[in-house]
Queue: 3 jobs
Job 1
Amino acid sequence: MNEKATIEAAAPGPKLGPGLLVLVVGPSGAGKDTLLAYARERLAGRDDIRFARRRITRPADATEDHVSVDAAAFALAVELGRFPLHWQANGLSYALGEEVAQDIAHGRIVVANGSRAAVPEARARFARVKLVHVTAPTEILAARIAARGRESADEVLARLKREPPLDGPPDLRILNVDGVDAAGERLAAFLRGL
């Protein structure tokens, strides 16, 4: 996801567990949502694996399966402690919903599209976190972002320049340049093995 995201501190408390949070991170345009959709379809029969729908302060569209939340409702949910993880990036607010904490409490694996900048907070909030880093060459990223039609050429370039480093090596790295089947199967196989 992004690039100089800012994280709001969560209230201290015991870490969420015993389940596992798998954060899929990487630059915009890497194809995270596409690979998540592929893996979700391949693992549809697995009750122990859930795929999170993020809350985002952006209207719903066909490019991403998320729950649209207005800024006031998002701020209230943060204030009430309803989000187990939330962050700011690219002028928007993002969060994982309450169902993620419930699934983690029931010992499930929850797979979520996250932000590299949110990883340290995720590690502080969840007892078990695995990291999948999806990326692609810059020219591919730029073309994919531009195809969404949400940003100008200058905004696309600015987005690509904002890329925070990972806080350590990922548990799986996917270079998403081949067909979705190849990269998607790598993610699905990784999740099957957890």
Note: Residues 1-11 have pLDDT under 50 and may be disordered.
Job 2
Amino acid sequence: MFSMPVGTLLSMEDVLMKEQAVLESYFHSLACFAYDKAKETVERERDVAHKAHQTTWILNSMLTALSQFAAIEKNYTSLLFLVPKGFLRKDSSLKTIYETLRGEFRRLEERSTGGLTPSSSPSVTPTPSFYSPSPPTPVASPSSTAGSLVGTPVSSSTGSIHSNYLPGIVGHSAVGNSPQSGMDVLEKFVGHLCGQLFHFICARLSIMHFYEKMYTMSSNRFMKYKELIPGITEIVNRSQRLFHHPLLSPLKSAFGFECRSLLKLLEAQVQIQQLQFLPALLSLYDAHSHLGSWASTMIPKAESRRLSCVVISRPVSMPALYRWLFHLKSTLVAKFTLYFHDILSKQTTPLEMKNICFKTSTDLYQKLLSYHRRSDALFVALVFDTHGLENYKGPGYHHPNKLVEPPKGLDSYPTIVCYPAVI
């Protein structure tokens, strides 16, 4: 039960609309990398509702968990989990905090579905990384905030709650008739949302493990990118079926852009290594599109003002995770430009090709020319080994039905790029 002073009595529809706006703002801020704003949003709502006695134990616990969730999401996008750990230090890693918070969301889900109330539920010892406040003193009230976390408006004519935001809840079309019915709806909704967040944290832990695997592999002399593709593909496919709650759609979109961008970049790396011109080009284009969509839809519009027809915008600070993915894409574009330099040069003028190479993050072709001048070599060339490749047809675009005999002898080592072109 929860209390609401008579002087501040709100209709159920007003309460639902208010809490819907709070949660929508929270998850949108998370997706926009505005983690401090998201944390402040739920903490302010929790404190205001607690002072006005317009909250419940389970709602208080979820808002506290969401505050902690915003803080660790900020650390995640800063890539702090890849920082080396000190010897004999306390285990305060980001992964441990995620696992603790995952357990808290599971606990809230189980208690809500089990119909437990603060008075009948066993006491829980708070952990250092998470604290659940004690429930407020229950006071009888004629009103209810049963839909305080419902993510959709209530029909003004019937007062029913949209089924998309309360799946599996039937027979609560008149949730405001009694405090107990309102409590049931609230607990079921909180449990469902916490269950969705539980699956999201599971997906987050999976992608963190994948980044750690990449970090470990990078210490080797030769990194086997092809072995990474099945892992990230599985994460992408599995996450499409999970955390599908409408309120989590901004968070799911951001997670999808991140994983699909990484998948396409890894595919482009493997395809460039195998001199697959068209597949690599398409993978780079897809990665560029995903990163661009992520930036345009998940970053809040910069405040701007016009002075003499000139727009002056405040730059948006991108987190380290996005910058790393963007830098990886730029590096692969530079590598693609070098490997297929001869093919691309035939489509434009030498001056324009030089300008295109100059605009890449690293002008690898110019570095090759500089090395040729310093070494006083006759020529500098990159040679490709075709052994072990199936259906190799050479660099550039080839019709799918074109039959090409496998290279033999010295033809098995074609030249990728050569300066000056003496062979």
Note: The first strand starts at residue 304 and ends at 307.
Job 3
Amino acid sequence: MSATEIDFYELLEVERTADEKTLKSAYRKLAMRYHPDRNPGDAEAEAKFKAVSQAYDCLKDPQKRAAYDRYGHAAFQQGMGGGNGGAHADFGDIGDIFETIFGNAFGGGGGRARPRRGADLRYDMEISLDDAFHGKDTQIEVEVSVACGTCQGTGAEPGTAKRGCNLCHGIGKVRAQQGLFVIEKPCPNCHGRGEVIEHPCKTCRGEGRVDEAQQLDVNIPPGVDNGTRIRLSGKGEAGPMGAPPGDLYIFLHIRKHAVFEREGTALFTRVPVSFTVAALGGSVEIPGMDGTPHEITIPAGIQSGKQLRKRGAGMPVLQGRGRGDMVVEIIVETPTKLSAKQKELLREFKETETGEECPESRGFFDKIKSAWTDLTE
């Protein structure tokens, strides 16, 4: 079977929209199934193993995959794609498969160790709702591992150099045999680097990095919310022996506001009004987060719990245009301190009530009366 005769996606049994993780999972599953060591003497399985390896070798590379998606197999014929159409697999992936099949008896998969990227770091920052509304530029101080200034990250004492490892002869891996199988593993002497430091740097003790406090500038854009993550590329922990640094991720936490509660781009607040305003109607003025006063018109006869909306008076849309809404929940407040005059006026009002003024109350008591009548009949 030739991989050029069958669509690569069909070979790997995935959709053309499959992401990198899906591709790798499908490849590992098929490679384990058709691996020659699992199917000794089976020429068809060996051919299938080579075919899926070739397919994965193409699709795991973004440039090769783009060329294949556009031109198909022709992309790798007559030099069109510039890629190698031969059937081979990434050694790290094969090492993962061997480890899955045969266990970790030899300390993991083979292959020369690549420079280990520095660790990503997390920083939790608390900001106010006002900061989230307007955005802000600020500074943080973090203690991270940075490249050693004495040895420039090499780990070797200045004036000295690394030498090739005598055990693996600079390859970074050694072979060990288990029964019929020869397994490669990282060299225990140089830890897969292929080089040995005879004179470690005294400042960093051969690590190539030291801990140092750093002041970092952080830009917080308008509209951020709880859990928004800001990435500072290359500001994480430095990698060992001059390897690239990781990233710093800043997670934002917004403090509780005295007036507003936030839900997405909407700002919610509760506004108490007197029962006379609720009955007769009126208006209230609420200052927005931008300092602009927003007039909210209260219709006559409004009830507690009714929500009124002011369009465009909420939070900015993160990395977008426009703003959300301000939502005002009306709370009708019953007076607790009345003058004699006010009490007298209320008594006069009570004497003029017909029941039509509060239809919900009248309807409720009519239901109770009806239910009571049904029970007594």
Note: The radius of gyration is 36 Å.
